[in-house]
C-alpha cells in the first residue's frame, strides 16, 4: 500500500493488516531523527530533509503467509503510482519525495541470503511486469557502464537496507528489508557532475565514514563517470567481500 508519510504512521498505529509496520516506522524515525544518544546524524542530508518535511512516501509490502511469498504485485502497482506522481516534480530539493518500500518482517531472524533473494525477486517481478519498454539507450547488462534499473520508463536508483548490516549502519534502517527508491534525475539535479554536486556527494560520503562502523564501501562510485551501478544497490557489510552477482533476466523484446 502506497501512503504519504503522515498517513503511513496513522495506519500502522491502527488495528489494520499493516500494524506490523508500526515498530519499523518508529525505528526509521530514530534513524532519520536520532536522539542525543546517537554518535552522529544520518549521513544522507536529503533523507533527513525529506523526513523532517514529511515528504517521504511509504510503500508497505506485506508477506502472504498462505502463498509463502511477498506481495510483489503491491510493490509493482505502488511503484507505478509513485512514479506517475514523481513525474511532476518541480525540481526543488525541498519538495522531492523519496519512496521507502518497507517489507513485512519475518517472525524469526533471516540470513542475508533471504534479503538478497527478496531483492532479486522484487526487481525481476518489476522487469517482467513492466508495461513500458526498457529505455532504449540503457544497456540490458548490469555489468555494463551506464546500466541502471528502469521501470515505467524511468531510470531508478535503489538503496537496499536490511538488519544484517551491523557494520554499515547507513544500510540498516530498521528490523526488516527496505528499498529507498528515487528517480535518477533527482541525483542529477541535486548531486550531478558539477562542482556543487561533487561537493555534496563527498560530504555525504564523509558523513558515512563517521556514521558507519567501517569506512565507506569501495563500490560507491559516480554513475556519470561510468562507475557500475549494480554493486551500489546492495552493499556487502564489509569492504573485502565482493558484491552480489546480478542474475536478473531481461527480455530482448523490450527495447533492445
Automatic annotation (TrEMBL):
Domain of life of the source: Bacteria
A Pfam family of this chain: YqcI_YcgG
InterPro entries: Uncharacterised_YqcI/YcgG (IPR014988)
Protein name listed in UniProt: FPC/CPF motif-containing protein YcgG
Origin organism lineage: Bacteria, Pseudomonadati, Pseudomonadota, Alphaproteobacteria, Hyphomicrobiales
